[in-house]
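Hi U.,

Before I forget, here's the chain from the pilot set. I'm dumping it here mostly so it's searchable later in email.
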Amino acid sequence: MSVLMSQGRPAKPRVGLFVTCLVDLMRPSVGFAAVKLLEDAGCIVDAPVQTCCGQPAYNSGDRGTTRDLAMQVIEAFHGYDYVVAPSGSCAGMIKAHYPELFEEDPNWRAKADALAAKTYELTSFLVDVLGVTKVGASFDGAVTYHDSCSGLRELGVKTQPRRLLASMEGLTLVEMKDSDVCCGFGGTFAVKYSDISGAIVDAKARNVEDAHVPTLLAGDLGCLMNMAGKLSRDGKPIHVRHVAEVLAGMTDEPPIAAGKEARSA
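Structure:
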């Protein structure tokens, strides 16, 4: 079957949505928001049967388990034009670290390279690949944005979410101090080094509060859960949401809160 191309990409790209474990288990609304944004941008979206990207095992030094999980992900997503994740952390794992897992296996290294080349974080894919400049949703109020470490440092995700947020009617973006400084989550880091993690999220929560806005946004659910837990324990009435929910106009779901959606340092 011939595929029409637009600026070097399929006119109706087939996107495999990498849902992520946290979104699947804790905040499915983020996945539905990602689907809406991608479909509104002209994509055909599917979410194949999938497993963890392997990042927890990778961060713990278990390369064998990580490779096993990576193989499953590679096989599940090989038939798509692109792979998109509403998470810079998981997308960064696939794009930056899968190839190095198979340095001594040319066959799997080639497959890992192919997957890495077509994997993107959600807002980066919308802006950098599809050329989206505006979303149709509106949002009444001011927000601040936290730059998650993996998305920022491994994938260069910084201007893309801000560009999309700036296109929204009614939304005002107020930059907090040190928006690009870690929140202290870091996956297993928050478990292994809880005292350090707690001190880091203390500083982040103060910066969020000092921005004097009612809503905090970010692109990684782990960071959001960590910050939401801290803000809730401190009694701060700040709503915490994934940026995809706001961009898609899907904010009927309650904000991310403490309890089952916040495991914090």
